[in-house]
Amino acid sequence: MTTRRFSQAISEGDGISVIVPVGDSESARAAEDQRAEGLIVWDSLPSLRDVVSLPVLWRGEGSLEEARRCGADAALLIVERLGDSDDLERLQAQSETLGLEVVVDVKDAEELELALERIDPEIFLLSPRAAEDGQAAHERVLELLTDVPAGKLAIADLAGVVRAEVDELERAGVDAVVVAAGNVTELVGAAPPEV
After folding, report:
1. Rounded to an integer, what distance in angstroms lies between the CA atom of residue 17 and that of residue 57?
2. Which residues make Cβ contacts (< 8 Å) with residue 137, sequence separation at least 6?
């Protein structure tokens, strides 16, 4: 199985990369046609690798072995769920054994610091779950970005983002943004992003 390095896809080229959650092979193919640079899946999609070549982030509840079998290139570890146990370290080691990159979901500075101290991941998924009342989701992500060390990759988890917010995230140094399926072309503009 060829590894399509997730980190490489979101760090290469100019501009911010677009990552799209998909639930079936048809939506995965559509996302690739619209110039997405990565996919997110929650369930095993047996024919996914027959229709797309994009790197895949596993966000499912299943095992890391299931993630690898479905053709994922990276696996999401959520600090909020795993931070109080040794599971972060165990799952990071298992991911490495399986050839999966680790993407760590954090919602606040404390979780980010905990992840850095315990497993020092290369890629962070910045979640707006801890946004204060009235705070825009992209503003929460920008606030979290200030705590991400230089040299690490940052993904904004903002499915409902608009073009102006994508531009602001890009200027701030966010490497990639999660967008809703079907919204890719509108956000990347008429010209496809550099790959």
Report:
1. 14
2. 128, 131, 158, 160, 161
Cβ pair 167, 142 in contact under 8 A: no
In tens, the pLDDT along 40-93 reads 999 888 788 889 999 999 998 889 999 998 889 999 999 999 978 889 999 999
Measured CA to CA, the distance from residue 143 to residue 161 in angstroms comes to: 16
pLDDT reading at 19 higher than 90: yes
Rg for the chain (alpha carbons), in Å? 16
* Domains of the chain, CATH where assigned: 6-183 (3.20.20.70)
CA distance 74 to 101: 4
Tokens coding 169: 């995230």
Beta bridge partners of 180: none
* Tokens of residue 46, six digits: 């047996």
Q: Does the pLDDT value for residue 1 go beyond 50?
A: no
